[in-house]
């Protein structure tokens, strides 16, 4: 069985995001970029499934320009067998990404597609669901536990009321949450080996997919600066301060 894992190049989660002065987007000049944390967890789970003998090949795929090859090579260093880059503008919307992934899915015929539940830049949480609908295969989202038995995946999902367990037939699309696993660290020898692993580049147009960006982000703005707090000596002063601010 093949496992296809989608990864995205995003600003590293440890970096403080800065909005450009003109509000046109996020400033990425000189900023550390990494694999989306949820996607890294998805890849780790795929590698564990292969190491358990339940899969033969793990393929990482990303959509973007040549800069995303850095993240694909990191995925190869973690242990993926090969990588695919869909060469296009990285600022594509979820439906276009899902359509591009579908073309690769039909070519590779994976038994399982694993994605992060969302990317930490757009926070759309849509690509996995759209891919499952276009592929006409089952989906299980927000997975915090995953077990494969024969041609069935048992997924523990995190929902508002607690945990929910569902079973889906394979092939299927699964999106993962933070508590599924702890991704492994990449070692220097693995980085060197990754340079020799295959990385295929396919243009978006060659897949027969036309980019459709129906949504327009008109402006970006940082969150408002928090007001400085005040110290009060007792509850009476607290109530007075809240009344002054019109909060009670």
Brief summary of the model shown:
The protein is of the alpha/beta class and 248 residues long. It has 6 helices and 11 strands.
Written account of the structure:
The protein is of the alpha/beta class. It has a single domain, classed as HUPs (Rossmann fold, 3-Layer(aba) Sandwich), CATH 3.40.50.620. Strands 9-8-7-10-6-1-4-5-11 form a 9-stranded mixed β-sheet, with helices on both faces. A two-stranded antiparallel sheet has the order 2-3. The longest helix is centred in the N-terminal third of the chain and has 15 residues. It is globular and about 70 Å long. The model has no long low-confidence stretch (mean pLDDT 91).
Averaged pLDDT: 91
Q: Specify the CATH architecture.
A: 3-Layer(aba) Sandwich
What share of the residues does DSSP label as strand, in percent?
25-35%
Relevant CATH superfamily = HUPs
CATH class: Alpha Beta
Q: Any idea of the CATH topology? A: Rossmann fold
Rg, please? 21 Å
Order of helices and strands: EEEHEHEHEHEEEEHEH
Number of helices: 6
Ordered list of secondary-structure elements with their pairings:
Layout: E1 2-6, E2 9-11, E3 33-35, H1 37-51, E4 57-64, H2 69-78, E5 82-87, H3 94-108, E6 112-116, H4 127-135, E7 139-149, E8 152-159, E9 162-169, E10 172-176, H5 188-194, E11 199-203, H6 235-244
Parallel strand pairs: 1-4, 1-6, 4-5, 5-11, 6-10, 7-10
Antiparallel strand pairs: 2-3, 7-8, 8-9
List its salient traits.
27% helix; 248 residues; nine-stranded mixed sheet; alpha/beta; Rossmann fold
């Amino acid at each position: 069985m093949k496992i296809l894992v989608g990864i995205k190049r995003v600003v590293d989660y440890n970096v403080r995001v800065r909005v450009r002065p003109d509000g046109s987007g996020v400033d990425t000049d000189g900023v550390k970029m990494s694999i989306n944390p949820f996607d890294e967890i998805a890849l780790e789970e795929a590698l564990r499934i292969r190491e358990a003998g339940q899969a033969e090949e793990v393929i990482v795929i990303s959509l973007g320009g040549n800069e995303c090859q850095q993240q694909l090579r990191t995925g190869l260093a973690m242990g993926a067998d090969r990588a695919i880059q869909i060469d296009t503008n990285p600022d594509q919307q979820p439906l276009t990404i899902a359509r591009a992934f579908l073309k690769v899915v039909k070519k590779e015929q994976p038994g399982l597609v694993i994605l992060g539940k969302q990317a930490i830049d757009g926070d759309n949480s849509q690509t996995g669901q759209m891919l499952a609908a276009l592929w006409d295969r089952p989906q299980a989202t927000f997975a915090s536990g995953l077990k494969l038995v024969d041609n069935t995946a048992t997924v523990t999902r995190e929902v508002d009321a607690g945990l929910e367990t569902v079973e889906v037939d394979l092939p299927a699309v699964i999106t993962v949450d933070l508590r599924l696993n702890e991704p492994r660290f990449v070692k220097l020898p693995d980085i060197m080996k990754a340079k020799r692993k295959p990385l295929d580049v396919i243009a978006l147009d060659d897949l027969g997919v036309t980019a459709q960006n129906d949504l327009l982000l008109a402006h970006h703005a940082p969150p408002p600066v928090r007001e400085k707090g005040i110290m009060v000596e007792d509850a009476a002063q607290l109530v007075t301060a809240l009344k002054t601010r019109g909060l009670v």
